[in-house]
Amino acid sequence: MARKKFVCGNWKMHRTAAEARTLAREVRAAAEPLAGRVDVAVAPPFTALFAVGAELAGSRIGLGAQNLHWEAQGAFTGEVSAHMLAEAGCRYVLCGHSERRQLFGDTDEAVRKKTGAALAAGLHPIVCVGETLPERESGRTLEVVGRQVRAALSGLGPDSIGGLTVAYEPVWAIGTGKTASAAQAQEVHAAIRGILKDLAPGAADAVRILYGGSVKPDNAAELMSQPDVDGALVGGASLKAIDFTGIIQGAIR
Ligand code: PEP
User: Fold this and answer.
1) C or N: which end of the chain has fewer Cβ atoms within 10 Å?
2) How far is it, in rounded angstroms, from Cα 31 to Cα 86?
3) 26 part of the active site
4) 223 Cα: distance to centroid of ligand 1 (angstroms)
């Protein structure tokens, strides 16, 4: 089944609102002509969402957030709800990025609740999964990734599963300059597709599975040429409009 490729930039904790506005303007100028053939989004820090949303208004480049809390409101100091993100103009939200899991204690159960809250608010979750280096080296990649996918999607019906994206991001490849080979990525993506077919047979073929982990303009095309690699979640290289656009071009080739 032909799935439209999707490239999303994760700006992490980079760029003030003013700086993010400039970057968004550069990304719009460079990437908008390509954004019809590929779905494109950027996820700036919370404080820059309104500024970037204003800069992207009327374009085909979507706005995303990097995290959310699963409750709608309440005494959760420092947190932001799905409805708040939707009001800020977000279409997408990352759930369970490995930096959240590793540095801020996001558990599989938290990722499940975040994914459900995002869907309930009409947002499109990008559910991030991936193994650490010791897990890969001990041959546990598919077990770990499978557990993360099943946990995040547990309790969701086929329509909900059809309304999300999965991002496979091996932890050892994030921000390290080490990329999974195209074959390594395809192996895990195919396994994820198999789990999706198990959970939602009618929806699985439509779900996009992105690869993330040191994607650059020079490796993007090969990674995205794999049958189950439907796009890229891009960290460092999304902070330069020219590199981000080069990666989007890799999705078209
Ligand atoms: C990420 O943060 O999701 C990511 C993949 O980072 P990088 O591209 O820098 O490895």
Assistant:
1) N
2) 23
3) no
4) 14
